[in-house]
Every structure is written in structure tokens, then in C-alpha cells.
Write a structure and sequence with these properties.
Mean pLDDT of chain A: 87
Strand content of chain A: under 5%
Largest interface: A-B, 50 and 52 residues
Number of strands of chain A: 2
Radius of gyration of chain B: 29 Å
Distance between the termini of chain B: 76 Å
Oligomer: heterodimer
Number of strands of chain B: 14
Structural class of chain A: mainly alpha
Mean pLDDT of chain B: 91
Shape of chain A: globular
CATH topology of the largest domain in chain B: ABC transporter involved in vitamin B12 uptake, BtuC
Number of helices of chain B: 23
Strand content of chain B: 5-15%
Chain lengths: 345, 594
């Protein structure tokens, strides 16, 4: 390997690592707030990228049917609950959020020339279609059993994952797609070149990470999420709704996931099931951070990115084996440094 | 009655290949696959349903079994029976290694680790050239049994279902034994089990390894049934499906594994035909349905379908209900520990300090307990009494200071090691396994008095010892006056009685030092008197008793000596009479006399 190749691989590793870091942050966030190990995180990556591709092809994105269906289910459940508790005044808002907004979105998307829109508008519409899936999935799959043991929540996550994979095949077909770069072309750096999209990815990841940091440090909702992560009962006693916290964290996770997909789909071809492995690599990063520390999780994710990129040069067939085997020494180290039998829930 | 139904089921199973006509080969194949899948799901019942651990990576262990035999029989011409041993040995090594590194951690690291190695092994199978890469390995020889080659599905059916029934019986035997009680305590009772001398980490590794071995045998059978292997059936997707089978069928029940494997296999066939036609596309759309069903089951019937089905049937046909209760066979008494001489110091606590971060819960506390005396530890709430109990019994070791028990240092030892030396305890917040009977709960206390391993119990070679353990447990329950509750679920008793069950459990360990944390709380007057009587009797037998209690009449009438704690420090020590007159103690309990 010469210097040139090393630089190229490093660039690759850094780009992928930045994406894994974003996903790792989302995973840590969701786990800390809701105790859900969010296996379907990666599906949002694929859904985001493939929905954008459909928009750009001028097609009505099929993901729209999913938010209509999930919104209707959530409206029925929440509506029935509100009526049972004699809180009919909640109905208008409930129906507006779960039914009217998705329907309005449908009306909008069906009546404009999707392919002709500027990229920024297409990205915004994609996010508008995919991100609501986050809180809706929380409402339907997790909220009824929010107090269940971590293990049960994990099994639910795996079930949600397989449902989304199956639906992904139904919605997007087995074909992979790429979307055009935000800015086409490459930057010549003398010894090496840099794709503009890489710069976009690094810049946007950095901005998102800083934004999350500010959100948790400064905003009242960010602080509420942190409070819920530290002590659910205590947070509830202080008037923080754990349901709100759950939905908010799932919204953020969906946003990060979908946006990550939009960022990388110009540089890698994504298929309906590609998200799973991408999400899991974010996971390996998150596990390195012990599912608790944001900076360590991000650093772990970057490490995964580099490892993947350099191992693809030396032993490309064993790339996945190497990345997923990395988890074993990490677990070994963590198990040797933590001690004492503690009660699990 | 239940036995009759079981017998009818077995006869039907045995006759199935004979009864099905030549044209129904498809159903034989289906039954073979149900058997193969059920064997894997059975391991998950032990691991997830009973032990509270879980794995999405069982398919990888199936792969280890299948590839081991495929490679060794085709490349080296080994006999399949020899490769079975090699495959199981290889699986055991892998499982022990993975178990060692993941099981000691919090519950969710294991499933995450299993996802990772599930993917890893899958890609490994597909990339090793000797294993034929993604194309796989063909030409695997059939298994011969007594000179007959099992070539057809109908012949192979018997091998699969005999292996499965062997697994079912072994699992049931294991769960109904001393080891079974320890394994059942893994789910929600780790601290208690450790304090009763159970090495919970070891039992986690045992069930994890056994589950992996079941999966491996299923893989070996699969390879010789198909006579061809490729990586696809060992992917993570299949690993997830195994867990779905166990959870939907009823992950806490041996028969739930069979039910789940049967349902998923049959519905998968049906949906794979139906859905592509319905949706006008080809693809594995059945996972959508399975995922949704899974979420629904976890929301509405977390224990799976088997218990729901059983409850339905028992309501329609009450004669079928398992008769609660039972009996405890007489057996020879277990050997008793030699008691120390009355009056000898058995527990010596020196300058024990316990800090939780910045909070000092115990500060340089010292006292002793002698054999044949009741020492009471009293003090206002938050004085650090229960923390002291945890320091002494090793549940949460002290930060500084020394604890000597029977003249040996025990601070820093695991609580099960301290239990082994003859200390037993109860907990302030009752730690019983609510769904288990009082008898089984108390028998956990006698864990260290048995020595048969899980291999003995699977093969029913532990019956004599098991009779003696149960008899001992029943004796202790009689002794504390709960004889009529032997077979009741521990969680169904009122809280006061649950505390008494804890005492019986501690006594079943045959201790020379008994630590009781608020045993009289929640008892009525007469029950308190009976308890005091029991403690006096134990003291008379030479047992040392360290007692935390708030009921002053109870304490002062019983204790030989009293230590008073306040704000983590020792305030006073002396005879009950002295303590009652000590101005500092009065100040602490009643406020100062101005």
C-alpha cells in the first residue's frame, strides 16, 4: 500500500465513520432515554435514501402509504383511549397530527412535479415522509410496553426490524439506487483528490453533532430527555412525560437515520436491506462507548469506519467478519473492567 | 390423564411416517423441519424463557454443527458419528469462549454480541474456500444406523424426532432439579441466588452452552438430511426466526418450543405461497406477518401461546389441570455442619467503612457476634444497618475495614463463598421467586448441600440427593410454621409470611451464623411470638444470630447484646437494659429532653 492508497482509504473510512458516528449517537440517545436497543435504526438510512431516489425519479414515494397506515392506527388507538378517559377535547389535535398531516403531505406530493424540484426541497420532502415513522413506530410498538424489561424491548426491536425489511422490499423492490451528489465533482489536493460529497458528509455530521450537543445542553426538551435518561420515575415526578420523551428521541433517531441515508447514497449504492449492516456498524461503535457515552461512541464509530476501509484493502472478502469480530475484544475488555453480579431487571 | 395425552402424542409421532401415503412426502419433509427447528428453539427455552438470557445467533451454532460434519465427512471421509462428537466439542469450545466474554455483562450485551457473531460466522462460512464459499458443500454421506443407511426423509424422521424427544426429556429433567432451581433463579434472582451459594455466572455459561449444543445437533442432522450445505440457512435472519419460534410458542415452556416451531414452519410455507401472489411480487414477505404477530404476542401474551392454549383447554376440561400440590417423600437427613462452641466469637467486624461515591453509609463500625447469642443491630431508618448486612454477607463488599468469619477474613470474597463457610441471610426487601413454590424457593437455600451436576440431573441420576434436599426444605418450612403452604406459589403469600419463607430458606443452608433483616416486620402478635420462640431455639442449638429489627419489644425481649447505629456510625453497644437507658440512644430515637 502506498501513501496515495492509504489516503484514499482513510478518506473512505472517515466518511463511513462519520455516518456510523451519527447512527451511534442516535442509538445511544434512544437507549438512554427509552431503554430500547433500536435495531431498526439502519432501516431509516435505507428508507431515507430510497425515498429520495423515488422523489427524484418523479414517483410518489411508497413510504407515504406507511405513514398513512401507521398514522391511522395511532389515531384509532389514541382516539379510543382519549374517549375511554372522557377526554374528547384531545381528539382534534390527535386526528390532525396522525391523519391530517400525512393526508396533506399526500395531497402535496401528488400534485407537484417532484422530479423538477430543487434538491433541497426534495430532501425536505423526503424527511417529511420518513421522519414521522419514528414517533409512530414508538407509539405503536414500544409505548404500550414502555416499562417492559430491556430484553423484551430488544425482541420487539428485532420484530420491527424484520417488518421494515419486508416492507422495504415491497416498497422499493430489490434494485439498488444511488442519488446525485449535493455538489458533483472532486477537489484536487495535489497528491490526492477529494469528492465534494465527502466534504458535505463531514461538514454536516459535524454540524449535526454540535447541534445535538447544543440541544441537550441548552434546550428545555434536551434537558427533559437527559432527565428521563437518568431517572424515569424522577423525571415523571417533575412533570416530564416519558411518552413525550420516547417519541422525541425516536423522532431524532429517525431524522438522523434518514439524513444519513441521504448523505451517503451518492457515494454507495443502497438496497432496501443495506441499512441493517450500516446500522449495526453504528452499533459496534455505540457498544465501544458502552451505550452510555456519546463522545466515546462517536470515536468508536470512526474506528469502525477506518477498520472497515483498511480491511477492505487487505482482505476484502473478510471485511464484515473483521468488523463484527472487533466487538469481541471490546466486549472482553468491558467484561474484564466491570465486575460484580448485579440484578438485571 | 396428562400422561395419556402425552402417550397418544408420542404414538401419533411414531406412526406418522407410516400413516402418510407415498404422495404426502411433502408432509414428512415438513415434520422433519419442524423437528430440526424445535430442537434449536428448545435450547432457547432453556436460555431465554428460563434463564432470562437471549441469543439471536443460534443459527450460527446450527451452522457450526452442519459445516463441521459436511467438511469432515466429505474432505476426510470421517464417519458421521465421529463428526457428531467433533461438532459438539467445537460448539462447546466456541460457546464457552463467547459465553465467558459476554455473559458476565449486563443482559443486553449478550444478544448484541450474538447478532455480531451471527453475522461474522455467516460471512466466514461463505468465504472459506474449503467450505465451498457461497455455493456450499455437496455429497455429504448419509448416516448409517446398525448397518442401515438413513437415506429417505421417512427414515431420517425417526432420528430427528428421537433426538428432539431426548432433548425435551433432558431439559425437563434438568429444570426439575437442584440445578434447575438455580437456573430459574437467574431470571430476577441473581443477588439472592449468589447469597445462597449459587455460582450464577457458571449456570449462565451452562445453559448457554447446552442451548448451543442443541443447535449444533440440529445442524448435524440438517447436513445429513439435506446432504448439502450452504451458508444461507445459518444467517442472522434464521437466527431471529428461531427466537420468534420460541417466543411465539411460549418461551418458558418446553412444549412451547415445539408449538412455536410447528406454527412458524407451517405458516411460513403457507405465506410463502400466498403473499407473492397477493402482492404481485416475489420475495420473503412472510417476515412482515411474523414481525407483526411477534409484536402483538409480546404486547398481549408475553409468555407465548402455549400457556394460553393450556389455560383454554383446562377450562374446557378441568380433569386435565395439573394437580397442584404433591408430596415430599421421606428421605435420609442431610449431614449437618459442625457448630462452633457456644460463646466463641464467630463474626468479627473491624472498622468497616462503606462509601457510595461521596456518601459514607458505614463509618468505621466494629462489633462481634458469638455462637449461641442473638446480637441485635438497631437504629433509625437510614442508619446503615442493611448496608452493614451487605458488607458482612459479601453482597456489596466494604470499602475499608476487615470482616472475619470463623477466624478467617471474608471481606472481598463473593457472597457465595461466604455462604459456603456457613453464613446465611434474609433480605429486607423480600427476594423470593414469586412464581416458584415455597418448597422450591426454600430448597434453593440448600443448594450448597447437594453436589450432583447438571449432567446427573438431565439423566435423572440425582434422585436420591434431590429427595434429601426436598425433604430438608420441607422440614425447615414445617419448622417455621408454614407447613400448609409447601406447594403454594411464594408470591401468593402475604408479605409477613414471605419473610418467614426467607428464614426457612436461610435455615435450609444449615448456617452457623444467621443474618436476619427485619424478620418481624408485617407479622401479627402471635406470629411474632412464634418467631421469637424459634430464634431462641436456634440460639440454644448454638447458632449465632445477627438481627436488624425495629420492633423494640421484640428486640429487647430476645437480644443478648445490642449495637445501636446512627448516621452510619456506631452510637452505643451493650446489654439491652443498658441500651434502653443510654441517653445518646434516647436522644437518637426520641429526640432530646430539653
Amino acid at each position: 500500500m502506498d501513501f496515495q492508497i492509504a489516503l484514499l482509504l482513510g478518506q473512505d473510512g472517515l466518511t463511513n465513520g462519520a455516518i456510523y458516528a451519527l447512527l451511534a449517537l442516535a442509538l445511544v440517545l434512544v437507549f438512554a432515554v427509552t431503554r430500547v436497543i433500536f435495531i431498526p435504526q439502519g432501516e431509516f438510512v435505507a428508507y431515507g435514501a430510497l425515498t429520495l431516489a423515488m422523489l427524484q425519479a418523479g414517483k410518489l414515494p411508497t413510504t407515504l402509504w406507511l405513514i398513512l397506515a401507521l398514522g391511522a392506527a395511532a389515531a384509532v388507538l389514541d382516539g379510543a383511549q382519549a374517549l375511554r378517559h372522557g377526554a374528547a377535547r384531545k381528539l382534534p389535535r390527535l386526528l390532525a397530527v396522525n391523519l391530517a398531516v400525512p393526508l396533506a403531505l399526500w395531497g402535496l406530493l401528488a400534485n407537484i412535479d417532484l422530479a423538477g424540484l430543487p434538491l433541497l426541497a426534495q430532501v425536505a420532502l423526503t424527511l417529511a415522509v420518513v421522519v414521522p415513522l419514528g414517533p409512530m413506530i414508538y407509539r405503536l410498538a414500544y409505548q404500550p410496553i414502555a416499562e417492559a424489561p430491556v430484553l423484551i424491548l430488544l425482541i420487539v426491536s428485532v420484530a420491527v426490524h424484520v417488518v421494515l425489511i419486508g416492507l422495504g422490499l415491497l416498497f422499493f423492490g430489490a434494485e439498488g439506487t444511488r442519488t446525485p451528489a449535493f455538489t458533483e465533482g472532486t477537489l484536487d489536493l495535489g497528491t490526492t483528490t477529494l469528492q465534494y460529497q465527502t466534504l458535505w458528509i463531514l461538514a454536516i455530521s459535524a454540524v449535526l453533532i454540535v447541534a445535538l450537543y447544543a440541544f441537550f445542553g441548552r434546550s428545555i426538551y434536551g434537558k427533559a430527555l437527559r432527565a428521563t435518561a437518568l431517572n424515569r420515575t424522577g423525571a415523571r415526578l417533575m412533570g416530564i412525560s416519558t411518552t413525550m420523551a420516547g417519541k422525541l428521541s425516536f423522532t431524532l433517531a429517525a431524522l438522523i437515520g434518514a439524513f444519513s441515508g441521504i448523505l451517503i447514497s451518492p457515494i454507495t449504492t443502497l438496497y432496501y436491506d443495506s441499512g441493517f449492516l450500516i446500522g449495526l456498524k453504528g452499533f459496534v461503535g455505540a457498544i465501544i462507548g458502552g451505550l452510555a457515552s456519546y463522545p466515546v461512541a462517536a470515536a468508536g464509530a470512526l474506528l469502525v469506519g477506518f477498520l472497515e476501509s483498511y480491511s477492505s484493502f487487505y482482505a476484502s472478502a473478510y471485511k464484515e467478519v473483521i468488523v463484527f469480530t472487533l466487538i469481541i475484544p471490546v466486549l472482553l475488555w468491558r467484561s474484564l473492567t466491570s465486575h460484580h453480579a448485579e440484578e438485571e431487571e | 390423564m396428562r400422561r395419556l395425552i402425552l402417550l397418544a402424542f408420542l404414538v401419533l409421532l411414531a406412526l406418522l411416517p407410516v400413516l402418510l401415503p407415498e404422495s404426502a412426502e411433502f408432509y414428512v419433509t415438513l415434520a422433519n423441519y419442524i423437528g430440526l427447528y424445535a430442537l434449536v428453539a428448545l435450547g432457547l427455552v432453556l436460555l431465554t424463557g428460563v434463564g432470562g438470557l437471549t441469543s439471536f445467533g443460534q443459527a450460527a451454532f446450527v451452522g457450526v454443527g452442519a459445516y463441521a460434519t459436511a467438511w469432515l465427512t466429505t474432505a476426510f471421509g470421517w464417519s458421521p458419528w465421529l463428526t457428531l462428537l467433533v461438532a459438539v466439542a467445537a460448539t462447546t469450545v466456541v460457546a464457552l469462549f463467547l459465553g465467558f466474554i459476554t455473559l458476565r455483562m449486563g443482559g443486553h450485551y449478550l444478544p448484541l454480541g450474538t447478532i455480531a457473531w451471527g453475522i461474522s460466522l455467516y460471512f466466514l462460512f461463505g468465504n472459506i474456500e474449503a467450505f465451498g464459499g457461497h455455493t456450499g458443500l455437496g455429497g455429504i454421506p448419509p448416516v448409517s444406523l446398525a448397518g442401515i443407511e438413513l437415506k429417505s426423509g421417512r427414515e431420517f424422521y425417526y432420528l430427528i424426532w428421537i433426538a428432539l424427544m431426548f432433548g425435551v426429556v433432558a431439559t425437563q429433567n434438568l429444570l426439575d432439579s437442584r440445578d434447575g432451581r438455580a437456573i430459574r433463579a437467574l431470571k430476577g434472582g441473581v443477588v439472592m441466588a449468589e447469597a445462597m451459594g449459587v455460582n450464577t455466572a457458571w449456570y449462565k455459561i451452562v445453559i448457554f452452552t447446552v442451548a448451543a449444543q442443541f443447535a449444533c445437533v440440529s445442524g448435524w442432522l440438517y447436513a445429513h438430511l439435506q446432504r448439502f450445505v450452504n451458508p444461507t440457512p445459518f444467517s442472522l435472519t434464521q437466527g431471529i426466526e428461531y427466537l420468534f419460534m420460541a417466543v411465539i410458542g411460549g418461551v418458558g415452556h418446553v412444549w412451547g418450543a415445539l408449538l412455536g416451531a410447528g406454527l412458524i414452519t407451517i405458516f411460513k410455507q403457507w405465506l410463502q405461497d400466498l403473499l407473492p401472489k397477493l402482492l404481485g411480487q416475489s420475495g420473503n414477505f412472510e417476515v412482515i406477518v411474523f414481525g407483526l404477530v411477534m409484536i402483538f404476542v409480546l404486547h398481549r401474551a408475553r409468555d407465548g401461546l402455549w400457556p394460553v392454549l393450556l389455560a383454554r383447554v383446562e377450562r374446557l376440561w378441568p380433569a386435565l389441570a395439573a394437580n397442584a400440590g404433591g408430596r415430599v417423600a421421606a428421605a435420609e437427613r442431610l449431614p449437618k455442619r459442625e457448630m462452633p462452641q457456644a460463646g466463641d466469637t464467630i463474626l468479627d467486624v473491624q472498622q468497616v467503612t462503606k462509601r457510595f461515591g461521596g456518601l459514607t453509609a458505614n463509618n468505621a463500625v466494629s462489633f462481634t457476634v458469638r455462637a449461641g447469642e442473638v446480637m441485635a443491630l438497631i437504629g433509625p431508618n437510614g442508619a446503615g444497618k442493611s448496608t452493614m448486612f451487605n458488607c458482612i454477607s459479601g453482597v456489596n463488599p466494604p470499602t475499608e475495614g476487615e470482616v472475619r468469619f470463623l477466624n478467617q477474613r471474608v471481606d472481598g470474597l463473593a457472597s457465595r463463598e461466604i455462604a459456603r463457610r456457613g453464613m446465611s441471610r434474609t433480605f429486607q426487601h423480600v427476594r423470593l421467586l414469586p412464581a416458584m413454590s415455597v418448597l422450591d424457593n426454600v430448597a434453593i437455600g440448600a443448594h450448597l448441600r447437594g453436589s450432583k451436576t447438571f449432567v446427573h440431573s438431565s439423566l435423572r441420576l440425582d434422585r436420591e440427593e434431590e429427595r434429601r434436599l426436598r425433604h430438608e426444605a420441607a422440614r425447615q418450612i414445617e419448622r417455621v410454621g408454614l407447613g400448609e403452604h409447601l406447594f403454594d406459589a411464594a408470591g401468593s403469600l402475604p408479605l409477613g409470611k414471605q419473610r418467614i419463607v426467607e428464614i426457612a430458606r436461610a435455615l435450609a443452608a444449615d448456617p452457623c451464623l444467621l443474618l436476619l433483616d427485619e424478620p418481624a416486620a408485617g407479622l401479627r402478635y402471635l406470629e411474632k411470638q412464634a418467631l421469637a420462640e424459634l430464634l431462641r431455639k436456634l440460639r440454644g442449638e448454638g447458632m449465632g444470630i445477627l438481627l436488624v429489627e425495629h420492633d423494640m419489644d421484640f428486640v429487647m425481649g430476645l437480644a443478648d447484646r445490642v449495637v445501636v447505629m446512627e448516621f452510619g456510625e456506631k452510637l452505643a453497644e451493650g446489654l439491652p437494659q443498658q441500651i434502653q437507658e443510654d441517653p445518646k440512644v434516647l436522644q437518637a430515637y426520641l429526640g432530646g429532653v430539653e
